[in-house]
Amino acid sequence: MINLILFGPPGSGKGTQAAKLVEKYGFVHISTGDLFRYEMGNNTELGQQAKSFISKGDLVPDSITIGMLRNKVEKHPDASGIIFDGFPRNVLQADALDNLLQEKNDAISALIALDVEDEEIVKRILSRGK
């Protein structure tokens, strides 16, 4: 299995590049934003826990985010590859991802860093939703 991490700031094109990889290779795209929307929208246990932190203006603990990620990965045992978009964001999350993949006798294949000039990122973000 091919496991990719797409790394870059908002507006750098992670979602656009992930969509192209999904279309061409059939990979599973896991975006942390999508995970949160799904879990909270479906009122899952993890979604309820996340909502309780968000409603207080607190950051959602890594353990909840990692649980959501684990659920998504385990729903796709036969995937040819997984694209991790917006995850990991810190060392604890990176270690948790390594542990999850090691349990499946797998590892990260590559990290793709998208480097875009600040002016271009601002332009892209401001043009969203128009």
Secondary structure elements and pairings:
Layout: E1 2-7, H1 14-25, E2 28-31, H2 32-41, H3 45-55, H4 62-74, E3 81-85, H5 91-103, E4 110-113, H6 118-127
Helix pairs in contact: 2-3, 2-4, 3-4
State the end-to-end distance. 37 Å
The percent range for strand residues is 5-15%
Mean pLDDT: 93
Helix/strand order = EHEHHHEHEH
Low-confidence stretches: none
Radius of gyration: 15 Å
Helical residues, percent:
40-55%
Q: Biggest β-sheet, characterized?
A: 4 strands, parallel
What descriptive keywords fit this protein?
53% helix, 130 residues, alpha/beta, four-stranded parallel β-sheet, 4 strands
Could you explain the architecture of this structure?
By secondary structure, the chain is of the alpha/beta class. Helices cover 53% and strands 15% of the residues. It has helices spanning 14-25, 32-41, 45-55, 62-74, 91-103, 118-127, and strands spanning 2-7, 28-31, 81-85, 110-113. Strands 2-3-1-4 form a four-stranded parallel β-sheet, with helices on both faces. The N and C termini lie far apart (37 Å). The mean pLDDT is 93.
